[in-house]
């Protein structure tokens, strides 16, 4: 089809307008297909929005199966020297303890500044250029080893080379990046090197090895002992004494009788994780109790989400369908104001899921899940026994109401039975498990209709219908091109006939006029 057509020269008629008017009528079926396709896309997205809401509810339903939701704990301590975190398995009550010693990391450092007086040491320069700047000299080509210890007493030993093409910081970085669990660095202001363990505790139980140091090395290693002036021990008094500091275990006494040590400042007793921040002045008490407020908040959040979901879904299935307001085509939108388009589409999108059997079936099953008794060995069989009831007004569509006083009483007296009511087992599922199964079935049924954002169109019902419409529209577009070409050919033939008639008329007038 040519884009450059001029008609009506012989007839004086506006052929272009005539063809456009005829084609507008011919395009009506295509416009209808475009509207049908848009409707299917809206419906697909509406279904996916339903699945999004159901997935959010499913996430909260999963939390309702967890013991920690109902057995969350509150912890208080009489002294900031000890803090604690309790899990759902923690035993309630007072825990009495005193901390005699906190765990510390072992560290060692240069006994004195390592730079020659009046010199400036560059820790980033090659050692070959810095030999004269070290107060106690530097021997290149040496290899030294450092040993640390694991919790089971086993050793980690690693060797390091002192070569001229390395800087002081290069060697210290190699130590820090090794598997020794040590960090080393040079502080220019103090002009000293610090080397320390990255974990707390006393792992070297033998005083025969490196005088019991956690960071052990041979005293004959000149780079550490001489150049950096870091020594394992001091024999100036005639008796070897360990220079290294720290490297101590935490020591505490539980209930005035049980003496316990720990490599770290954390220790777990009866499900309670204690954190030792400082030594205590005698006994302190840590109290663990049920956090009923937290459990109530989580249940209320779950019920509120459930009510919101069923309210939204009930509105969607009851929404009025306005069949006189089909989706607008792009051509129609061009002739309308933005506000007009918005109001029109509000009507056009109404009722997309009206009376949908899958959604209505899911809603009915969810309502059944709540009021059907639960088979378990707990004290509660019905939600009404813990203060959660279904609205008696059918217009509410099965909304739930919570009596927080009854719920708090149940959680205070028997949180485990409340947990069993919601969770249950695979054989005898509780409310949360029932809802999960119902949601899963509903989501899968909807996905067969509307798919997911990650699925291809030909794998779900609406997608296949959209693909079919796309093919029909492409075929119809080809047909419209042929029709328009035919119209132009026909009008072209008419123009030629009129032109011949005009020529004949002019000839007659000229010769016989």
UniProtKB/TrEMBL annotation:
Where do the Flagellar hook-associated protein 2 C-terminal domain residues begin and end? 247-503
Organism (species): Halobacillus litoralis
Could you say which protein family the record assigns here? Belongs to the FliD family.
GO BP annotation list: bacterial-type flagellum-dependent cell motility; cell adhesion
Task: Cite a single Pfam family from the UniProt record.
Answer: FliD_N
Q: Which domain of life is it from?
A: Bacteria
Q: Which UniProt keywords apply?
A: Bacterial flagellum, Cell projection, Cilium, Coiled coil, Flagellum, Secreted
Q: NCBIfam families this protein is in?
A: PRK07737.1
The keyword Coiled coil belongs to this UniProt entry's keyword annotation: yes
- What's any one GO cellular component for it? extracellular region
Q: Does the keyword Coiled coil apply?
A: yes
Please give the chief subcellular localization of this protein: secreted
Subunit structure, briefly? Answer: Homopentamer.
User: Which subcellular locations apply to this protein?
Assistant: Secreted; Bacterial flagellum
Name of the protein in its database record: Flagellar hook-associated protein 2
Residue span(s) of domain Flagellar hook-associated protein 2 N-terminal:
11-105
Free-text function comment from the UniProt entry = Required for morphogenesis and for the elongation of the flagellar filament by facilitating polymerization of the flagellin monomers at the tip of growing filament. Forms a capping structure, which prevents flagellin subunits (transported through the central channel of the flagellum) from leaking out without polymerization at the distal end.
């Amino acid at each position: 089809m040519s884009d450059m057509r001029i008609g009506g020269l012989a007839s004086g008629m506006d052929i272009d307008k005539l063809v456009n008017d005829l084609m507008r009528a011919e395009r009506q079926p295509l416009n209808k297909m475009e509207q049908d396709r848009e409707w299917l896309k809206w419906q697909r997205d509406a279904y996916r929005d339903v699945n999004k809401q159901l997935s959010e509810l499913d996430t909260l339903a999963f939390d309702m199966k967890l013991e920690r939701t109902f057995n969350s704990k509150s912890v208080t301590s009489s002294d900031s020297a000890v803090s604690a975190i309790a899990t759902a398995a923690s035993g309630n009550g007072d825990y009495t303890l005193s901390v005699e010693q906190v765990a510390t990391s072992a560290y060692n450092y240069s006994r004195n500044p390592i730079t020659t007086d009046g010199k400036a040491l560059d820790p980033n320069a090659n050692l070959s250029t810095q030999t004269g700047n070290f107060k106690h000299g530097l021997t290149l080509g040496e290899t030294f080893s450092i040993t640390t210890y694991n919790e089971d007493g086993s050793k980690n030993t690693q060797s390091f080379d002192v070569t001229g093409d390395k800087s002081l910081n290069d060697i210290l970085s190699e130590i820090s990046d090794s598997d020794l669990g040590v960090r080393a660095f040079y502080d220019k202001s103090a002009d000293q090197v610090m080397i320390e363990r990255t974990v707390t505790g006393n792992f070297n139980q033998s005083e025969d090895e490196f005088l019991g140091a956690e960071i052990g090395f041979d005293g004959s290693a000149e780079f550490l002992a001489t150049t950096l002036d870091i020594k394992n021990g001091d024999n100036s008094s005639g008796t070897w004494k360990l220079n290294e500091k720290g490297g101590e275990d935490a020591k505490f006494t539980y209930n005035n009788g049980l003496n316990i040590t720990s490599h770290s400042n954390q220790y777990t007793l009866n499900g309670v994780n204690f954190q030792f921040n400082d030594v205590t002045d005698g006994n302190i008490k840590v109290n663990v109790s049920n956090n009923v407020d937290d459990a109530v908040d989580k249940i209320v959040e779950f019920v509120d989400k459930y009510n919101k979901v069923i309210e939204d879904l009930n509105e969607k299935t009851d929404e009025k369908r306005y069949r006189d307001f089909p989706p607008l085509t792009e051509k129609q939108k061009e002739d309308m104001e933005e506000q007009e388009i918005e109001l029109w589409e509000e009507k056009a999108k109404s009722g997309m899921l009206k009376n949908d059997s899958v959604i209505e079936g899911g809603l009915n099953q969810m309502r059944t899940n709540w009021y059907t008794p639960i088979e378990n060995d707990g004290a509660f069989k019905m939600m009404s026994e813990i203060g959660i009831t279904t609205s008696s007004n059918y217009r509410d569509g099965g909304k739930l109401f919570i009596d927080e006083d009854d719920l708090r009483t149940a959680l205070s007296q028997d949180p485990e039975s409340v947990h069993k009511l919601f969770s249950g087992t695979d054989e005898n599922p509780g409310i949360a498990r029932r809802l999960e199964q119902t949601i899963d079935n509903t989501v899968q049924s909807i996905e067969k209709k509307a798919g997911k954002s990650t699925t291809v169109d030909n794998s779900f019902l609406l997608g296949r219908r959209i693909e079919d419409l796309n093919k029909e529209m492409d075929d119809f577009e080809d047909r419209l091109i042929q029709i328009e070409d035919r119209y132009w050919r026909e009008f072209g033939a008419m123009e030629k006939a009129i032109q011949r008639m005009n020529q004949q008329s002019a000839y007659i007038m000229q010769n016989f006029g």
